[in-house]
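Take a look at the protein record below and flag anything odd:
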Amino acid sequence: MSSFSNAVASPDLRPRPSAAYRWLVLAVISIAQGGNYYIYDSINALEGIFKDQLHFTAAQFGWLNTSYSIAALLTLLAGGIVIDRFGARRALIVFGALCLAGAAITAYQGSFYWMVTGRTVLGLGAESMIVAVTTILAKWFKGKELGFAFGINLTIARLASVAADNSPSWATSAFYPHGLQNPASWQGPLVVATIIAALCLVMPMLYALLEKRAEALYSLGQGGSVDELKWREIFKFSPSYWFIVGLCFTFYSAIFPFRQFAIDFFTNKLLATHGGALADAATQLAAFQQAGRFSSLLPFSAMFATPLFGLIADRVGRRASLMALASVLLMPVYLLMLRADVSLYIPVIMLGIVFSMLPAILWPSVAYVVEESRLGTAYSLMTFLQQIGMAALPLLIGAANDTSHAGIGNADGYSLGMWIFSSLGFVGLAFSLLLRKAETGPNGHGLETIVAKTA
């Protein structure tokens, strides 16, 4: 009995996995997450085609992401339980299978209710898959390596978003399988998304093999803990936390729902100076492809600018002030997009700056104002409320575009929706000024003053 106890108590003297093995794991799970991001953004280029071929309204198109966010709200409550009970390795496979199923269901039939079902299934798997990937990264990477690994993971995922927005350029044959003179295909791009979605299942299965092999050879970490939402703790947070949550709700509601409608808006804005619906097929395709490139500038710029803004915040502090700056930039962005005498590059670059500041400043700020023991609840609640905004805004913008008859030949019809987006900048400014006031007062947590120590 004593020898058995000694064996159990003895430390694991096996080595950590080699650097090459860890980076292979990182590549595998990041590609899986990239497939996840691609599926979510795969519908961005399809609003006009859905209207023409499937007779969708803008509000119905908005439901495709609203249903995703509603499902994501449910998984935020249950996904962590699945990961804790079955382990991140098995959970990753289950969530990846749901992502693939969601993509396949969406592509199978051009029915509104069928597609909403597919996007709901995707929402059940996608957000929990991201949580599982985060848990796995913490198992394989420690210390300074972990931050770099997260950065690489996010970069690969955002490259998938860039690819989805640019799909009218590199997958033109899927959009127009019978040539430009014939109607575009609603199904072809979704079939491409389903093929890419297979990565969400194949890569987790490959990861499972890599982890099983590693368990026999190496000493592995225990993995990261899953953020848990404990409702009884939400009344213990400071005003600064709630102002940050308000900023998160505002900015995510202003940016991600816009991306869903952006390619259709950009396409019709570009065509407005070339005859609108009377433009020839080649001109319409060129505008469609250019619109995808404009939309992709947001995730593409964030890949490079987010680390820069993180460095700036660490060097100068002033985090609440930087969020006020982001709000000021957000206010005119959507109104500038409506103007015929302003190049779209100007407001898109401004929006890219705001988009880059979110993960660099907003999310790390929570750790300054919330006790470490409550961070899990703080981040879970923030994500939960963020998804509520991302569920509501697509319906609101879709209804606005329907009311104003926005579309090809009526680029001015997008004005109402753009004013709604722009108004969120004013709300964000109010939250950021309240945050700055709280943090410069006697009960501040250091958001405006804490900087990284230098030698």
